[in-house]
Amino acid sequence: MKLMICGKGGCGKSTITILLARALAETGKKVLVVDADESNLCLHRLLGAHQPGIMMDAMGGRQGTREKLKQASDHQHEDDFFKQVMTFDNLPAECLAEADGIKLLVVGKIREFGEGCACMIGGISRAVLSRLQEKENEIVLIDAEAGLEHFGRQVDKSCDLVLCIVDPNYESIQMAGRARQIAEGAGIQTYFILNKVDDDVRATMIEGLDKKRIIAAIPHNNEIFLQNLKGQSLTTRMPQIEAACSFITSYRKPLSLNMKL
Predict the structure, then answer these.
(1) Helices (H), ranges, 98-221
(2) Domain hosting residue 45, numbered range
(3) What's the total number of domains in the chain?
(4) CATH assignment of the domain containing 147
């Protein structure tokens, strides 16, 4: 199962990604986290893993990546990065880190002025996810870039589910609605996780969303806040996260959505 985790910048999608990964791993699932956000510098720290090699760098930077993506587009060329069938076991080892049984794959990062747009990073993500075949007990969590651009790049095309993280912000609520509209236009169901909420704002946030699509409401947690601030591994357990994991593990894609564009 592949889940795209998206949302407005600062909504807490990376935090939720790691908390979900830990909770899912504790249920016996094999979990791969794909860092597809070109701006996120610390996902490995939140997982408690070392910084793995960045896939775009290992492919020869932008020039090498451009050639490999071109070769991979015909689905007949196979190398160490784009095999015909990619699995948890044959992903490029130099681009993986692991902590507590959770694997982390980092796609690419923007690091220099004038380096260019992140379209190539989206191209790598799309190529990997379209080839990656997970087993029944394996779950892929993709930490998407902030905003909606990953939809335009069709990075979500191979995903089974979109989870949109929504924080108490009008723009965040509007973006969640647009994310659902775009994703479901491609045959992918979307659900929401409210983040950083309390009783005063929960009701207002629910008014702007489809209540039946909300699978968890995560309260502000000072322990998580401090772990994030210090760049420490996120180890806090929350019943709301466990509830979201129960939804994920029991989710079955509607037959009408089995065909994607």
Answers:
(1) 119-131, 149-152, 170-185, 199-207
(2) 2-253
(3) 1
(4) 3.40.50.300
Q: How many whole angstroms from its chain centre is CA 103?
A: 13
In a domain, 229, yes or no: yes
Per residue in 94-121, pLDDT tens? 999 999 999 999 988 766 676 666 677 8
Residue with the two structure tokens 């600062």: 10
Q: Going edge to edge, which strands form the sheet with 30-35? A: 96-99, 102-106, 30-35, 138-143, 2-7, 161-166, 189-197, 214-219
What is the C-alpha R_g of the chain? 18
pLDDT in tens, 144-203: 888 878 887 777 888 999 999 999 999 999 999 999 999 888 888 999 999 999 888 998
258 located within any domain: no
Tokens of 249: 């593990």
